[in-house]
Write a structure and sequence with these properties.
156 residues, mainly alpha, two-stranded parallel ribbon, two-stranded antiparallel sheet, 9 helices, 4 strands
C-alpha cells in the first residue's frame, strides 16, 4: 500500500539515482512530470534539496496537488461513501488493479462498440467530449484503467 508521498520520496529518488548511475551523468538537464508525476516532483524537491540540486529545471505539466472537482459521478460517489475505508476493512489495498483478461478484452470491446468505451471513460473520469482527441482513443485505452493503491485513491 502506498500513496503519492511514497512515490515522491522513495520511488522517484530510486528512479533518478538509477538513471544517473546508468548514464554516468552528474545531474539532469530537466525533470518533466505530468499530473501525479508533478506531485511526486514537488514532494521530493521540496523535502530533499539534495535531489533538487540534481535537476536543472523542473517542468510541471498539468500539475495536481488537490482534486476538488473531479467531474466523475462514480468518483464523487466513492468519496462520499468513504470507499477507501470500506476496502481497507475488507483487506483490499489495490484499486482497479491490472488484469490480463481486461488488457486483452478491452481493446476488442472498444473496436466493436466504441460508444461503450467512450461512455464508460466519461462516467469514470469525467470528460467533455468536444475536447477529446478521438484519434488518440487507442492510446487512452492502452492506459485505462490504470490501478493504484487504495491509500493513493483516498488522497485524490
Amino acid at each position: 500500500d502506498f500513496t503519492w508521498d511514497d512515490l515522491g520520496l522513495i520511488d522517484l529518488p530510486a528512479a533518478l539515482d538509477f538513471a544517473l548511475r546508468t548514464s554516468g551523468a552528474k545531474r539532469f538537464h530537466a525533470y518533466v512530470g505530468h499530473s501525479q508525476g508533478t506531485t511526486q516532483g514537488f514532494a521530493l524537491f521540496t523535502q530533499r534539496p539534495d535531489y533538487a540540486a540534481k535537476v536543472g529545471v523542473f517542468v510541471a505539466l498539468a500539475p495536481v496537488a488537490y482534486y476538488a472537482h473531479p467531474g466523475s459521478l462514480i468518483f464523487e460517489a466513492l468519496a462520499a461513501l468513504r470507499t477507501d475505508q470500506i476496502l481497507a476493512l475488507l483487506g483490499v489495498d489495490e484499486f482497479l488493479p491490472s488484469s490480463q483478461l481486461l488488457e486483452t478484452l478491452l481493446p476488442e470491446v472498444c473496436k466493436l462498440t466504441p460508444w461503450v468505451c467512450e461512455e464508460t471513460l466519461c462516467i469514470m473520469a469525467g470528460c467533455q467530449k468536444q475536447f477529446m482527441n478521438m484519434s488518440r482513443w487507442d492510446v487512452y485505452m492502452g492506459h485505462y484503467p490504470s490501478g493504484t493503491s487504495v491509500m493513493n485513491m483516498a488522497h485524490w
